[in-house]
Amino acid sequence: xxxxxxxxxxRHGETEHNMAGLVxxxxxxxxxxxxxxxxxxxxxxxxxxxxxxxxxxxxxSMSRARDTATYLNAKLDLEMEEVHDLRExxxxxxxxxxxxxPQIRFSKDMKAPPNGESSAQFAARVQRALTYCLDNSKWxxxxxxxxxxxxxxxxxxMYNVYEAIHVVENCQLYYFEPHxxxxxxxxxxxxxxxxxxxxxTSPPPFCATRI
Length: 211
Hints:
By secondary structure, this protein is an alpha/beta fold. The chain contains five helices and seven strands.
């Protein structure tokens, strides 16, 4: 499981593959769309106003996460570190297929697609990557982790709450805070959204207080 330290985590902005409804795993370096570049730039001015400010940025080695992190860091001016293991689930021969293709079936026990990673292999990599980020962060100085939608499902597999984690939108910011009331999923989670000129918070469906 993960070290019990708070952290921010965000999926990259919209990509060309997202817009086209195509699979882009950890072997496909799909680029940001104009909307995908605008999303983090719109969020960036609000980040210095967070009650608990990020102290460092870790990002995936894929360009969509690296570019998103760079846009987000425009107002924070933090040290950034690339972590290769934060990349998306390697989906092998599924990459480039439309999401509705019948051979694409995700589950917490999914075997590896041809030339890809199984759910267990991916979850182990996610645990290793996030543990590295948290081990290299001080308590009270949470990192901002810029990664991919699959990383959220990897967390769900780790804690056996895979079915509770549904859609994670592009450039949706979350804050994970240790929460010992639910020891099987020891996190209280808040999501941030821009409403007018304010950044508002609310618990997502997979918040610890709802599981």
